[in-house]
Amino acid sequence: MNPDQAVSLARQTLDITLLICGPILVIATGVGLVVSIVQVVTSIQDTTVSTVPRLAAVAATAFFLSPWMFHEMVAFTIRLLGDFHPYLR
What we know:
The structure is a single chain. The chain is mostly helical. Helix content is about 90%, strand content about 0%. The chain has one domain (about 15-89). The termini are close together. The mean pLDDT is about 90.
């Protein structure tokens, strides 16, 4: 495997990782921002107020998107292992 192939494979892996983790990170950031704004407005500074909604939103997002995430991971693995010959040289 030459360096160009290794860089290409690493880039494809990082792309699929970002594609799979992106929605969960966006939801966690959005919920965290909304909760922080509510905390500032209401002057409630309890750590559980910020942690529990974010955790619940991430769990719900992972639950509902898990079939899609699994499909994307399987498709990437099949593409990778289906044409493995170029990496063996």
